[in-house]
Specification:
With 544 residues, this protein is an all-alpha fold. Helices cover 72% and strands 0% of the residues. Helix 4 (73-94) packs parallel to helix 8, helix 4 packs antiparallel against helix 9 (192-214) and helix 9 runs parallel beside helix 16.
Length: 544
């Protein structure tokens, strides 16, 4: 059946099957989530996807609960599908951009007798496999709720929810894919890296910004009652697919039918557009990323060394990370994908009226959490990114050079503090000064946040100490790390900040002793880290 269907579309079935199977095997050949890259064995493919699947099921269950408390299925459908778009878009931008933009394809497949249509089918199948797997885990709770709970036992409504969720997910994936493919037609080869970087940031802002605009609309109960009657809401793509739920409940008006037809038309246009762009010509353009050099700019004979990281292992790590960011497309896109999310967190906190002076007003955990999560969450995610790379085989140099492995590992942590945490704390200090009006309160609060951020970085290194860029990045690992870290830190870090505000800040003496205690704790943990890394490094084995 599959062979007949693909051959009718002009696709070589055997080539398609081999390409898809090979791509999936390569994706799951790397080490498992949380496993050591220095082990000589690896987990099975199924074991590597259990963690992200379970995480998405838990998140999907939370959003499925919203469908039970909102009576209107159209409105609840918009809410659920908005979250689906956000999760799929975030995961693709953070983790699976390599599935969409794979420069290696042309170098491997160009001399093979593979048609562009077969290549398109294989690449599209690869994208859809990840999207469907993710969407099934995230959307299954909502499908079950619509099918068995919202209107009693209603298989038709459950089927409509399934079509809406999968349709939204596939449309989001195709829209991002087409955006990446389209830019390759107008950008010179030597500028592709920079263009894809800009596109990554723009797409991230669209995903997070759209969520930031739509999300608050559901906080107002009056809006929840009247939102479906506002025509401008129909511009939101989630409304097009949510119309399936209305049709399943017996509402067959022109609006519902029109939105349904619009969703089908958009899917068709996206598939047609992707088929014209995702070809071996597209792969050839991506292959230019590896073969074309940008014009060399004249540089000064000597570069000034910075105040920090100017000698020994610290300087080596600093130069390595900067060079990796400049030349490693996947690493750069992964890091830059976090920047818009950080801005979104700050914007959300300011919009909600948060960022109150914790010395004078007891902070609201629900409002202030998102502001503090940014400074506590994202540095730990970046710390994990610094140990993963497709070029992990080049880590052999760490096993041959006379460098102190503990200093190499700890220098990564200090690089994150200097390059990410301190600039962000400076931005927060400016915002705090505007909101608080008390410079002393600002200095103390920023110092406490910086100490907490450093402690969480130390915990990250203690749990998973690794050399720079020495582990292969598994598909799905970035997004799982982000979501799981956000969950853990939301449970641990935010209550810590609230408790400090309530019990420590009211007394200047308690505040001074608390800061001194945290500093001493951090110094002690630093020494423990050096010993732990030294003992662990004696058992590390090069896996390249």
């Amino acid at each position: 059946m599959w062979r007949w269907w693909w051959e009718k579309l002009g696709v070589d079935y055997e080539q398609w099957r081999i390409l898809v199977r090979t791509a999936l095997k390569l994706d799951f050949r790397t080490t498992g989530l949380g496993g050591s890259a220095y082990n000589t064995h690896s987990e099975g493919g199924w074991g590597k996807i259990i963690a992200p699947v379970m995480l998405y099921i838990v998140m999907g269950s939370v959003f499925a609960f919203l469908a039970t408390v909102i009576e209107d299925v159209f409105l609840s459908g918009i809410l659920v599908l908005t979250f689906v778009m956000f999760i799929v878009g975030t995961t693709l931008l953070l983790d699976y951009q390599s599935v969409i933009t794979s420069p290696d394809d042309y170098l491997i497949l160009a001399f093979q007798p593979i048609s562009s249509r077969t290549y398109f089918a294989a690449r599209l199948t690869n994208v859809i496999v990840y999207t469907v797997l993710m969407t099934t885990a995230f959307g299954m709770p909502s499908m079950l709720v619509y099918g068995f709970m919202v209107r009693g036992f209603n298989p038709l409504l459950g089927a409509a929810a399934m079509l809406a969720i999968y349709g939204t997910s596939v449309a989001t994936s195709l829209a991002i894919l087409v955006s990446y493919a389209s830019i390759l037609r107008v950008v010179p080869a030597y500028r592709l890296k920079r263009a894809l970087t800009y596109l990554q940031v723009v797409m991230s802002f669209l995903v997070y910004g759209g969520f930031a605009i739509i999300g608050p609309l559901f906080d107002d109960q009056s809006v929840l009652q009247t939102l479906q009657r506002t025509p401008w809401l129909f511009v939101h793509p989630a409304a097009w697919f949510a119309s399936y739920l209305d049709l399943a409940t017996g509402r067959h008006g022109l609006t519902e039918i029109g939105l349904t037809l619009l969703s089908i038309a958009v899917l068709g246009l996206l598939v047609r557009s992707a088929s014209g762009r995702l070809s071996l010509d597209y792969a050839e353009r991506l292959g230019a990323l590896l073969a074309t050099s940008a014009p060399v700019k004249p540089s000064s004979a000597a570069r000034r060394r910075g105040f920090w990281f100017n000698r020994d292992e610290a300087r080596a790590v600093s130069l390595l990370i900067r060079a990796q960011f400049k030349h490693d497309q996947k690493f750069r896109l992964g890091v830059l994908g976090i920047v818009p999310l950080t801005i979104f967190y700050l914007y959300s906190g300011i919009r909600e009226g948060a960022i109150l002076d914790p010395f004078e007003t007891q902070p609201d955990m629900a409002q202030d959490a998102i502001v503090y999560l940014a400074v506590l969450l994202f540095p730990t995610i970046i710390q994990v990114y610094l140990t993963r790379s497709d070029a992990y085989r080049a880590s052999w140099v760490f096993y041959t050079c006379p460098a102190d492995t503990s200093r190499l590992v700890l220098s990564m942590k200090w690089f994150v503090m200097a390059s990410f945490v301190l600039p962000y704390l400076g931005l927060m200090a400016a915002i705090f000064l505007y909101r608080f009006g008390n410079p002393i309160h600002v200095v103390v609060h920023v110092l406490v946040l910086g100490l907490f951020s450093h402690l969480f970085l130390q915990m990250t290194v203690f749990i998973d100490p690794n050399l720079p860029f020495s582990k292969p990045m598994q598909k799905g690992e970035r997004s799982v790390v982000m979501f799981m870290t956000a969950l853990i830190q939301a449970v641990l870090s935010v209550p810590m900040v609230m408790l400090v505000s309530r019990f420590i800040y009211p007394s200047a003496l308690r505040t001074a002793f608390f800061i001194a205690g945290v500093v001493m704790l951090s110094v002690g943990v630093e020494r423990m880290l050096a010993g732990r890394v030294s003992s662990r490094s004696a058992r590390w084995e090069y896996i390249g």
